[in-house]
Amino acid sequence: KIDHAMRQALPAGHFRLAYQPQVDIRTQAVVAAEALLRWRDPDLGDVSPAQFIPVAEESGFIVALGDWVLTEAVRQAAVWQSQGQPLQVSVNVSALQFQQATFVERVAGALESAGLAPELLELELTETILIQDAEEALTRLRLLERLGVRLAIDDFGTGYSSLGYLKRFPIGKLKIDRSFISGLPADESDAGIVRAVVSMARALHLKVIAEGVETDLQRQFLAAAGCDQYQGYLFAPAVDPERFAALRAGCSPDAQPCSAGV
Ligand code: C2E
Ligand code: MG
Ligand code: MG
């Protein structure tokens, strides 16, 4: 039922993107945005990505859906760029989408038709994508690197990892999964894991962002551990582009730190 509804929802324009700020942990400046897919269906109401993305991955519809997300996020980033407010936008990429023979061409095509500077696009890949067919993945990542787009590993620490690929692959950023953040600062295992990931990332010259930061105590712990950026309800949830622009305007590096719930 969900798969059928999704296939109708895409041409009907019922999908949209919301943008969640990624924030410098020390200055509280908004430095990037993650594009997150939203679906409001006339019959089903709001359907969560946690529910429909797995269905789309299983049926293969994620290829068409992911293509739409890429085009739309690049278009929005180009609008911000043309307004003199350039901001890096991150797009989530599914395994099946990444494995398409034409994936790199599609990325290049989206950048070109929107006129977006490639470094303003970041692709979020999961550990699973990278180890599935490591040689093929490496070839593809190098092509993307040559295009000038940025690459990040999403949900870091939850998949099957090979630390070797962090060394070999042209990855710029690790996103520490929210499951390791929620217990901070009290949970000693989470604290240990987070400190270890941050120091490993530093040694490898990778940037680190913490996902799902909800409290100021978590943010303080992460700042002390040397984490670069954070993303989470403490600063803001994912919001529509208009609200995002307002959020940015009120949250310049010189302004007071923003509060939650915007
Ligand atoms: P993700 O890429 O790890 O995205 C982060 C998720 O955490 C988002 O959920 C976001 O709304 C949520 N989140 C952010 N801050 C907080 C917080 O402080 N606390 C809590 N509890 N949650 C927070 P969302 O939007 O429901 O997306 C869930 C997942 O669906 C994403 O996880 C991603 O894997 C997938 N997804 C979303 N949009 C796309 C897309 O366009 N393409 C693909 N392939 N996957 C997508
Ligand atoms: Mg993500
Ligand atoms: Mg994540």
The oligomeric status of these chains comes to single chain
User: Unreliable segments (pLDDT under 50, ≥5 consecutive)?
Assistant: 252-256
Q: What compounds are bound to the protein?
A: ligand C2E, magnesium ion
What integer is the average pLDDT?
93
Radius of gyration: 18 Å
What level of helicity do the residues show? 40-55%
Count of extended strands: 9
Q: How big a fraction of the residues is strand? A: 15-25%
Structural class: alpha/beta
Specify the biggest β-sheet: 8 strands, mixed, barrel
Provide the spatial order of strands within the biggest beta sheet: 1-2-4-5-6-7-8-9
The succession of helices and strands, N to C, reads HEEEHHEHHEHHEHEHEHEH
End-to-end CA span:
34 Å
Q: Count the DSSP helices.
A: 11
Report the principal-axis shape.
Answer: globular
List the topology elements.
Blueprint (H helix, E strand, L loop, with lengths): L1 H11 L2 E10 L5 E12 L3 E3 L1 H11 L2 H21 L5 E5 L2 H5 L3 H12 L6 E6 H6 L1 H14 L2 E7 L6 H6 L4 E4 L11 H16 L3 E4 L5 H10 L3 E2 L10 H10 L12
Parallel strand pairs: 2-4, 4-5, 5-6, 6-7, 7-8, 8-9
Antiparallel strand pairs: 1-2, 1-9, 2-3
Helix pairs in contact: 3-5
